[in-house]
Design brief:
The complex is a heterodimer of chains A (about 375) and B (about 325).
Chain A: H1 15-18, H2 24-49, H3 63-70, E1 79-81, H4 87-92, H5 97-104, H6 138-153, E2 159-164, H7 171-182, E3 187-193, E4 196-197, E5 200-201, E6 222-226, H8 230-245, E7 251-256, H9 275-283, H10 286-296, H11 302-325
Parallel strand pairs in A: 1-2, 2-3, 3-7, 6-7
Antiparallel strand pairs in A: 4-5
Chain B: E1 2-5, H1 6-20, E2 24-28, H2 44-52, E3 53-55, H3 60-72, E4 76-80, H4 91-98, H5 101-104, E5 114-119, H6 134-138, E6 144-146, H7 151-163, E7 168-173, H8 176-179, E8 181-184, E9 197-200, E10 205-209, H9 212-225, E11 231-235, E12 238-240, H10 244-254, E13 257-264, H11 269-280, E14 290-294, H12 304-310, H13 314-326
Parallel strand pairs in B: 2-3, 2-4, 4-5, 5-7, 6-7, 10-11, 10-13, 13-14
Antiparallel strand pairs in B: 1-8, 6-12, 9-11
The chains are: A alpha/beta (about 375), B alpha/beta (about 325).
Amino acid sequence: MAATKPKAGAAGVSELAASVGLTDDDLIGMYRVIATARAVDERMWVLNRAGRIPFVISGQGHEDAQAAIAWPLEKRKDWIAPFYRSIATCLAFGMQARDILTAQYAKAIDLSSGGRQMPGHYGNVANNLVSLSSPVATQMLHAVGIALAAKLRKTGQVALTTMGEGSSNQGDVHEGLNFAAIHKLPFILCIENNGYAISVPVSKQLAVPDVAARASGYGIPGVIVDGADVLGCYRAAKEAVDRARRGEGPTLIEAKVIRLTAHSSDDQQTKYRSAEELADLQQQDPLPRFRKELRDAGVLTEELEATIAAEVKADIDAATDYAESAADPDPRTAMKWVFAEDWPGETPPTWGFGGGHGLEGHEGDTSAAEGAVD
Amino acid sequence: MALKTFIEAIRETMTEEMRRDESVILLGEDVGLKGGVFLATDGLFAEFGEDRVIDTPLSESMIIGTSIGAAMNGLRPIAEIQFADFIHPAFNQLVSEAARMRYRSNNGFGVPMTVRAPYGGGVHGALYHSQSVEAFFAHVPGLKVVIPSTPYDAAGLLRSSIRDDDPVLYFEHKKMYRSVRGDVPADDYLVPLGKAAITHPGTQITVLAYGLMAHYALEAADVVAEEGVSVEVVDLRTLRPLDKETVLSSVKKTGKCLIVYEDNRFLGYGAELSAIIAEEAFDYLDGPVSRVAGPDVPGVPYNHVLEDWFMVNPEKIADGIRKLAAY
């Protein structure tokens, strides 16, 4: 991300930054990612409620852990297989607010899929972010395979995948951890445990309190971190990355996070979360906590905070305008990239490739999204 | 030219591809020291070592899923599923992931991966070592499905599959491994994906088949030839993408078509062939597009009498040809 002018501690390294071997630039960089992720997320909800985009799936409450855990990975060298809440992860790994918003609008220029996938399915080859599907936890095995290739090709790359604790119950997670552990692959699984799989609380998902406890079954470290503790998350991820690069194998990190929003724009969370719980959530928001930590350490001055806030807002306003005015994909491209080459044997539809089939005025129509993820 | 068995052609082609391109790796159950339960990978472990010939845990979804990831990071994996019957735990990885990766990423990512699996009955394999699974996968845009029938095609198509930039499912009829022999040139030839072959020219009836059934169709063609029926046998070789041109031009020439497949009849691969011919060659037809296919029971039964009842064979095909010829 664009480095902001750091509030100088001692030569740009405050005590806080030094405690984890980082610079103030890094901490400000993380803060900027977290703040951008939150702002873009909030913008998505506004656009959804205004009828401009059909569907939102949110990362609010996960951002601190996401930015911190992606931070020790090397951009455009290492790999991340993200999940649908990974906005801060993707921003930390090279995507821009504009790339998130063009995906929300599903425009032709959408970096992740050219408008083919639902919003939230981020990933692009330039940033080594694996394209994501909707059946959860499938990306686990892709990250393990990437790590296998890294080991065999001796590239020094590390592969990280992230998912919720709900996804951790899929068989692919077991199969992948087992294989990654056997071969000591440079692989990290990060579980962002927000306590809910849509509506199902963690007590109905796991027979043990922590996903991390499962790590011992594969003979690998399982680490639990407070997802609101940015430096703690960074420290755990750094250790896992170092371990992976040394050839010592995978690590499972479980970040305890909170889900500040409903599962998605089609979810009514008051059906399964009490008013009291929802009110209390705001008190636990990790973003103000990190901000305070940076202020207290003298890393974030009032002035810098205001500058970042203004820059983030300008960035997101510009990205919204850009995405809003960008072109929709052309139906004539809809049969491209089934395979690397065009194959004349694939039969086009009887109606050809013209418009006029519900394509006009699509933006305000949420019916297609309803129930598709819930 | 050397005479080779079907399985020798497959094994030697994998060996040559792994020598030629160090990004080619092999993974699957028992593929290493043991050389595979059919010995399709015999000797590869000794030559290429445990990094490139990987004995996996019994985790089919993992075999395919990690192959997808490895393919995205510079390798060209050959994933062996020990029996096609055991591919179903990997269905999600094949259908939701491998098949859609290129399309959903708007050509950002491709999955150059070959999945090999022995399929088919007639070998006392019962319900779970005899299945034909091609229809499940041929249905899915984004997957290529190859079923060779000769050692020559097995080698040429396997080379093309490994070098292809998209996922290819390469199914090998296990009854053919050691019972089918044929000439295989020593050179590095390719048989292109998506091209059928006319293996027996004829004028009155087109028989469409693949895999073991392509052999049985030839036997049946010889039988009915003595009765004065001229059959054109088309060996499809690649099921998807389908070589529609060869299929339709043969049917337009003969005016009659019999489709032969070992899989269950209902919604098997022949159902699509039949629909395409009905849609695109209707004016040329002189009889109903017909099928000789496996009965609609949930699997091939074990007892030899029951298995013989299930299996399509040259006699059953010849009967189908006679019926259509008389129409």
